Request: fold
Amino acid sequence: MSESQTVVNPLGTDRIGKLLRSFAIPGVISMVINSLYNMVDQVFIGQGVGMLGNGATNIIAPIATCAIALSSLFGDGLATYFSLQLGKGEPEKASKAVGNAVIAGTGVSILFTALVLIFLTPLCRIFGATDNILPYALEYGRIIALGFPFVIVGVIVNGVVRADGSPKYSMFSMMIGSVLNLFLDPLLIFVFDMGVSGAALATIFSQFISMVLNLAYLFRFKNIKLTRDSFRFRFSLAGMLASLGIASCLNTMTSTIISIVSNNMLTHYGALSVYGEDIPITVFGLCMKVSMLFFSIAMGISSASRPILGFNYGAEKYDRVKKTLYLTLGTTTVVMVAAWLIYQLFPLQLIRIFGSESALYEEFAVKCFRIYLLTNFLGGVQLCAGTLFQAIGKPAMATVVSLAKQVIFYVPAMLILAAILGLDGVLWAGPLAELLAFFLGGGLMIREVKGMGSNSLL
Reply:
């Protein structure tokens, strides 16, 4: 592709605000829809099965998160590589990346599903399942695991659909699955009285439909053309995609690490408190789900900036990179502040969406939302910093920023504060880790922007 053909790409010429808006609106809807899959399950399970059913989905959620992490490994890596190559005028390399990402994702998803089904019982125990919750977790998890290939392959393709300039199609494929899940959940849970099994079946069928719609886009790319050679597997290329996506993968995977540590500590210290072992682990999981729903809005905006950042960095248009970053940072911060106000003002109303339980259950829920999410409004800075480093092809820096909050700061803080404060210490570790990650991510981002190009705006 000639230089003149590269310049006409709207990513390098259109107004930043217009580009970010066009990518962000469908991107936000896609991210919210993805977050709603498990959350919708929990709403109907809470109403139809009760607290133990919701506890079961919280046990399986970290395993499902691992599937999302694997999809990010190749999906976000593919989207980054795809945008960089288009910016450099190399569509052939971009097409080969798409084929290799689909093949790698398919193989990894099948292997992961098999391992989960074989080791599901010990995995549930590792993630903190109590004796009361375990039967529900196994019933739900055996079905959910069968849908992991649909999730992984579907998410991989969905990301590159956005990078190709079709965010509305990306949104449509995700929305169809979510609407279908919303319809099937009450049908299978209440009408057919299938309990948690019904919720799981509704989820995986919806994920299958979304995957099929995403795969259909492989025949209608705007900027590349897939050929048989595109699907010739190349280990070096797959490794490159994985290196670019490792930050997103680890960032998502750290949620699993957090779940292992926090669930077991919540169970242990909960048993020593008036709340017992089942209430803290259930409520904390619901708090995480609600916060992820709002965080997904900021994540959708940040993800929408990735192809704009990547293309213009590849084209050496650093002023456009900086303008995109500043606009994204400001928008995500507004979203996070608004979400924080909701957490602090309406915690009881949020938890009651999932059904009404005992007074102790609601008391702990209010405490959990107000303490654990106390500094959540700072989260946009770390999110944008990680996106920037990933988009410009610096996976090592992106990995450090992505790991900062949950692994580098949160786990040690939780272990130390829980030993001092007991159950409350698990909650107070959250705002402390958020604050430290804010300073680290913000500092690294400022340093990178100052050194970018010759005409720094800082």
Notes: The radius of gyration is 22 Å.
